[in-house]
Amino acid sequence: MLGRGQTNPKICEHCEMEFCSISSKNDHLKRVHNKPVENKTTPRILCPLCPEGETFLSHRLVKHLKDIHDIVVKVSTLNFNNIKEFEI
Where are the bilayer-spanning segments (predicted)? Predict the structure, then answer.
């Protein structure tokens, strides 16, 4: 549930069309409404085993390592209540 004053980041502010991802909404804003969007680039990770220097988003690298290099990576999610917990 969104708090007061917040908007759903996947709904167009101009026509209220809903999108499944922020990137889809941003494409729509540029294409349909000719609006500039903030371009946040997600960090890409270099595959240490590929000589071509191919880079991936983290979840795609896990899949690439399994499919191409036959390496299974165990993924864990860590949650912290504050920065001090993170720094310990």
Answer: none
